[in-house]
Amino acid sequence: MEYVAYALVIFVILTGIATALLRDVLAAIIVFAAYSLGMALLYTLLLAPDVGLTEAVIGAGVTTILLLLTIVKTVRPGGERTFERLDPRAALACGALAVVFGLTLPDLPAVGDPNSPILSYDAVTGHYLTQSYAETGVENTVTAVLAAYRGFDTFGEATVVFAAGVAVLVVLRREVFT
Amino acid sequence: MSDTDEDSEIPEESRESETAEAEEETFPAQRRAYTESEVIMSTVRVVTPFVLTFGLYITFHGADSPGGGFQGGALVGVVVLMLAFAFGIDPTRRWLGTKAVTLVASLGLLVFAAIGLGSVVLGGAFLEYTRYPLEDAAKYGIEAVEIGGIALIVAGVIMGLFFLTAAGPGGDVE
């Protein structure tokens, strides 16, 4: 299992870099969909199937379709090169950022470590894990947290999704969605 | 099914044509968003029932298994996107009509707000399900919010974003 996860991490990093560097936008979108698929598998492997499902549907599915629709209205850059020319200063900045983030990795708790703060601070996590079924009657703790314990936040998020649709209506100066 | 019938039913004809001309100059190589393909149509015909069933399962079973209104609603919305991809964006747009998508998204938000504010009216906090005089009020309240609220909003907005992106600013519908 571990090796599959490592392989997926390498795959995700490579597709992420390729998305940034590929010159042809169509190729970049296809590679980006592959990146999302890798992330979805990784989330599922890390026992977060709810997030994995979202990444698969939204990241690999809807985003890809919307980006494809967008490039229909643009032109593909010509030329022979497959990859974009690297700007050394931008590459240096990105590399430095990656190194800084990478330096924090050894300090993160291992996946499922019982001593990690999220699991050892029982007042919140423990309450959700042990009491959510008794209090809400739903078996999926994620759903219980989203719709009951953090219901007001979720209402805000749902409103944001709706507002995003309205914002696109306003930007494109249309009155109806279809 | 073919994209020969180009007349879109979107208002603001004048502005549409203006923008279309402007775009013609900037991007001479305009491509069509829809290509009729036997392979895509056959695949979508086979896959659609399964995706729709899976989406509804994820939506309605989200309280007891991974998933929920967001993922399920997105899947159900994607079914319409697949149909549009395979059989033409404009025919699908006409099939949906102008009201359906707006109605679905707005209804979702209204249902969510009504359930949340209902418990306030009954003297509790926002979304305090146990205020409702029902057995297992929390369970059914969560289901109602997931299915009648979040799923509808997400499905509606995803369909809306797709058709809006396809139409573009001021028209030029493929």
In short:
The complex is a heterodimer of chains A (178) and B (174). Chain A has 178 residues and is mostly helical.
Overview of the molecule:
The complex is a heterodimer of chains A (178) and B (174). The longest helix of chain A has 24 residues, at 49-72. Chain A is globular and about 60 Å long. In chain A, helix 2 (25-45) packs antiparallel against helix 3 and helix 6 (125-136) packs across helix 7 (141-149). Chain A has 2 domains: 1-108, Four Helix Bundle (Hemerythrin (Met), subunit A); 113-178, no CATH class. Chain A has helices spanning 2-21, 25-45, 49-72, 88-104, 117-120, 125-136, 141-149, 151-171. With 178 residues, chain A is mainly α. The mean pLDDT of chain A is 89. Chain B has one domain. Chain B has helices at residues 13-26, 38-60, 69-87, 89-96, 100-121, 137-167. Chain B is elongated and about 55 Å long. The two termini of chain B are 13 Å apart. The model of chain B is unreliable at 1-29 (pLDDT under 50). The interface between A and B is large, with 49 and 75 residues.
Write the layout of secondary structure elements.
The complex is a heterodimer of chains A (178) and B (174).
Chain A: H1 2-21, H2 25-45, H3 49-72, H4 88-104, H5 117-120, H6 125-136, H7 141-149, H8 151-171
Chain B: H1 13-26, H2 38-60, H3 69-87, H4 89-96, H5 100-121, H6 137-167
Helix pairs in contact in B: 2-3, 3-4, 3-6, 5-6
Class inferred from helices and paired strands of chain A: mainly alpha
Order of helices and strands of chain A: HHHHHHHH
Give the total of beta strands of chain B. 0
Biggest interface found? A-B, 49 and 75 residues
Which percent band covers the strand fraction of chain A?
under 5%
Number of domains of chain A: 2
What's the end-to-end separation of chain B, in Å?
A: 13 Å
Quaternary organisation of the protein chains: heterodimer
Unreliable stretches of chain A: none
What's the alpha carbon Rg of chain B, rounded to whole Å?
20 Å
| Spatial separation of the terminal alpha carbons of chain A | 45 Å
Task: Describe the main β-sheet of chain A briefly.
Answer: none
Order of helices and strands of chain B: HHHHHH
The percentage helix of chain A is over 70%
The biggest sheet of chain B, with number of strands, parallel, antiparallel or mixed sense and barrel status, is: none
Helical amount of chain B: 55-70%
- Classified in CATH, the superfamily of the largest domain in chain A is NADH-ubiquinone/plastoquinone oxidoreductase chain 6, subunit NuoJ
Overall 3D form of chain A? globular
